[in-house]
Amino acid sequence: MADKILEMHHISKTFGGTHALKGINFELKAGEIHALLGENGAGKSTLIKILGGIHKPDKGEIIIDGKIADIDNVQSAQSYGIGIIHQEIVLVPYLSVADNIFLGREPVTKWGFKDKKQIYSRAQEMVVQLGLNIDVNTLVGELTVAQQQLVEIVKAISFNVKILVMDEPTSSLSDEEVNHLFHTMEKLREKNVGIIYISHRLEELFKMSDRITVIRDGNYVGTKQTSETNSEDLVAMMVGRELESFYTRTYSVQDQEVLKVENLSCDNVFEDISFTVHKGEILGFSGLMGAGRSELMQTIFGASPYDRGRIYLNGEEVFFKNCSQAIEQGIAMVPEDRKGQGLVLENSVGFNITLSNLKRLMKNKLLVSEKKRKNQINKYVSDLSIKTASSEIEVSSLSGGNQQKVVIAKWLATKPRLLILDEPTRGVDVGAKSEIYSIINQLANDGMAIIMVSSDLPEIINMCDSVCVMRNGKLVAQLSQSELSQENIMRYATGG
Ligand SMILES: Nc1ncnc2c1ncn2[C@@H]1O[C@H](COP(=O)(O)OP(=O)(O)OP(=O)(O)O)[C@@H](O)[C@H]1O
Ligand SMILES: [Mg+2]
Prior knowledge:
By secondary structure, the protein is an alpha/beta fold. It has 17 helices and 20 strands. It folds into 2 domains: about 5-80 and about 160-240, Rossmann fold; about 255-495, P-loop containing nucleotide triphosphate hydrolases (Rossmann fold, 3-Layer(aba) Sandwich), CATH 3.40.50. The chain is globular, with a radius of gyration of 23 Å. The protein starts with a strand and ends with a helix. The structure holds adenosine-5'-triphosphate and magnesium ion. Magnesium ion binds near residues 44, 45, 87, 167 and 399.
C-alpha cells in the first residue's frame, strides 16, 4: 500500500477537568480505510475535531504528506484536503439541500451573482450519484435524519478530499443506503483517498476496513490489521475486560393488557394497524426505513394525529391531543432524533434527566426538593454509567452515546407504564448497549410494557417477546419468539 498521508503523534487534549485525549497516535495511508474504535466517550470525535480544526490540541503534532501541518481552523483543514462528516449533523435547516452543499463556496455567474442554476444542477448530480432520491430544492429541515446524514456525506465528498473522515455515518441509515455508502467508499479508495471510519458496528469494520485502531479513555491501545483480528479481541481492547452476557432477558409477560391499538390509520402514512402490549412484555417493531414505524409511535404518543381507529390504555379508550397528555397517562417515548426531540443541549445533564419529572420531585406545591433532585440525578448517572465530569455540565459536551443515555434516563425517571424506545442504542458502544439491555430487561420484569423500534436485527431478536414487521405503512406480520430470525424478518420487511 502507498505512503502515509497522515500521521498524528502524541495528541493530548483537556476540556476543563476532562482529560479527553492522553497522547494518541494515529496514521493513515493513501487508499486505506482505517477504522477508529472505542467506547462512548473514549475520545474518537475529539481526535477528529482536532484534525478538522475545530479544537486545538494541547500537545502533539499532525503531519500531512511528511510535513508538519498547521491546522488552525476549519478552512485550513479543508485546504489540506481534509473532509469530515461529523457525528452530529451541522447542516443549516432553513436552507435547501443544494445551498447547504455549496455553502461558502457558491459558483458565481460572470456578473458575480450566485449561479443558482449551476448550484442546483451540480448538487442534483452529486445526490443522484450517491443513490439518494431527493430534490435538492428541498429545505434540509424537512428531511429525515437519515437523509440529512446522506446530504452531509455528499457535501464532504464534494470538496476534493484526500483525507475523508466519517464519524458514525451509518447510525441512522437503512441497509440499502449503507450499501450505497460503502460503494462510494470503494470508489474513493480507488482514487487513493484515505478514509478514517468511525462506527460502533463491528461487522461494518470487518467488511470495510484495512486496519483498526482502538482507543480507551483517551489512551492509545493499539492498531491491528483487520484480517488478523476478531470481535472478541477488539471488544477486549475496547473495554479492557471480557463482556459476559451481552443480551440479558428473562421472560415475564403478564396477562394484563397495557396498550391496545385497533385498526389505527393515518392516511398515506400507516393503515389499519392493530396490536396489543401486555405488562412485562417487550414488543419489537421492525421494518425498512420509511415503513411507518416512527410515525406510528409518534401517533400513539400523542405527537401526531390519526384519521381512524382506536387506542386503549389499561382498557380505557384514550384520545391524546398532545404528548403532555400521553405522559400524564404514563406513556414515555425515547425518540429517534435525540437532538431535535430528546434533549435541551445547552442545559445541564441533571436538568435534562429531571426535566420530565419535576412534579414528582416537589417538596411542596411550589418548590422542587433539591435533595430529591440530586438523588435522582445521581441514581441515573450511576445506573446507566453516564460518563460525565459532573451532572452540572452541558449535555452538548457529552459524547454521542452518553447523550443517548441521558435521553433514556430522562424518560425512565417519569416511571412510565408504557415505554416506547425508538432506536434506543443507536450510536451506543457495546459495553453501554449491554447495560441498556439489562436495564430494559429489569424494567420489563418490574411490569413495564415496552415497545422497541429498532433496525438492529440481532438486538430485536434477542430482546423481544414478539416482533411486528411493517412494510409501506402496513403491519405485515407479527412473529413470535420461535419464528424470529433475521431471514424471516427481512423477508416480511422487503416483501421478498
Ligand atoms: N467540548 C467539550 N467540552 C467538554 N468536554 C468534552 C467536549 N467534547 C468532548 N468532551 C469530553 O471528552 C470525552 C471524549 O468525548 P468524545 O466525544 O471524543 O467521545 P467519542 O469517543 O466520540 O464517543 P461516542 O462513541 O459516544 O461518540 C468525553 O468525556 C466528553 O464528555
Ligand atoms: Mg463521537
